[in-house]
Task: inverse folding
């Protein structure tokens, strides 16, 4: 087997074996706790720029297929697993995970102690890392220098790297109820399917579009998707959202869209020390008191200490609609005076529990009421 090394910016080194293609890759090291759904994780554009480690030890047994992919490619900067499956054993499998990684040119590492690495990152916080598996060996100092020279996630604008380059239409399923303008900041296929199956015609726009161009499509509502990067570095999208909110048409945001709504309303965002990633995160709905088990993938959050505040920019009262039960992080916002709401987690839950599908119905009802 070919040797590989995982090097963390604090100088920690873990030796393992090459998985995927040989090469060098650097990025922010994060871990995902799902026992299933590795293909959905790999093809989620929100993971762009990040080296993803699976905490579940055995990965790859069901292979991969076209149907379960959340986008057209694998986006992770690198991939870490404890013990990759030697075979793909599932009637839906079309290729092995290893084949998929190689076809997408993903540098990975296997046979490392993922429990030890998880505990290390969980204690010290998210950090930059590098996977080194090229044929030409590098010294420890050389590898560490490359890792420390990599940009930190804070301050990075990555939406342009994962967004569509052209606008496109998706027809509604069944009778058309309304039209939604979707800003693609790294959207997942499942999100579009949830909107379309509720009778919504969808026009998907690139991240660099203007508010005027979106409005020219005559939408009944607006949707901002998930995506990678620092919301503080997305000033153009924040300014555009402020214009769209001024129309008082319904708005729904997910993940990165939640952070952009917070900033558009005048609140700050901040980098989480650890981040939330996994498909079993408990969140409380502040209005109903119901606890939802939800899918997460975010390293930034909206800063709001109280559960209700006035928008500093004149959009009226804003409520914290959801909070994470593990650390009380803001997991949802709802405007009282305009029809706008968002959640930090992923209600499309691909992969994950279906506790929060009702949010798509809520958006549909808001569009119906506004017409």
Result:
């Amino acid at each position: 087997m070919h040797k590989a090394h995982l090097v963390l910016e604090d100088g920690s080194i873990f030796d393992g074996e090459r998985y995927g293609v040989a090469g060098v890759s650097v990025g922010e090291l994060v871990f995902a706790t799902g026992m299933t759904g590795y293909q959905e994780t790999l093809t989620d554009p929100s993971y762009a720029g990040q080296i993803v480690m699976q905490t579940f030890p055995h990965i790859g047994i069901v292979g991969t297929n076209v149907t379960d992919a959340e986008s057209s490619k694998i986006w992770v900067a690198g991939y870490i697993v404890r013990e990759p499956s030697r075979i793909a054993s599932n009637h839906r499998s079309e290729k092995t995970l290893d084949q998929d990684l190689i076809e997408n040119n993903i540098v990975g590492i296997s046979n490392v102690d993922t429990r030890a690495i998880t505990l290390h990152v969980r204690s010290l916080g998210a950090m930059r890392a590098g996977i080194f598996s090229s044929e030409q060996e590098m010294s420890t100092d050389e590898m560490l220098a490359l890792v420390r020279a990599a940009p930190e996630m804070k301050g990075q604008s990555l939406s342009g790297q994962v967004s569509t380059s052209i606008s496109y239409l998706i027809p509604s399923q069944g009778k058309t109820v309304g039209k939604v303008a979707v800003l693609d900041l790294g959207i997942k296929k499942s999100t579009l399917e949830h909107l379309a199956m509720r009778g919504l015609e969808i026009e998907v726009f690139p991240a660099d579009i203007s508010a005027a161009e979106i409005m020219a499509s005559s939408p009944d509502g607006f949707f901002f998707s998930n995506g990678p990067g620092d919301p503080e570095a997305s000033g153009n999208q924040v300014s555009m959202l402020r214009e769209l909110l001024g129309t008082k048409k319904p708005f729904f945001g997910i993940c990165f869209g939640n952070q952009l709504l917070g900033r558009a309303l005048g609140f700050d965002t901040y980098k989480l020390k650890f981040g939330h990633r996994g498909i079993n995160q408990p969140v409380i709905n502040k209005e109903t008191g119901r606890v939802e088990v939800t899918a997460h993938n975010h390293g930034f959050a909206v800063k709001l200490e109280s559960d209700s505040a006035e928008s500093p920019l004149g959009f009226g009262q804003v409520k914290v609609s959801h909070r994470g039960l593990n650390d009380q992080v803001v997991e949802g916002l709802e405007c009282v005076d305009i029809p706008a709401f968002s959640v930090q987690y992923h209600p499309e839950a691909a992969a994950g529990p279906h506790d929060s599908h009702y949010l798509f119905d809520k958006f549909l009802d808001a569009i119906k009421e506004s017409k």
In short: The chain has ten helices and 20 strands. The longest strand covers residues 269-285. The longest helix spans residues 358-370. The chain has two domains: 3-149, 159-370.
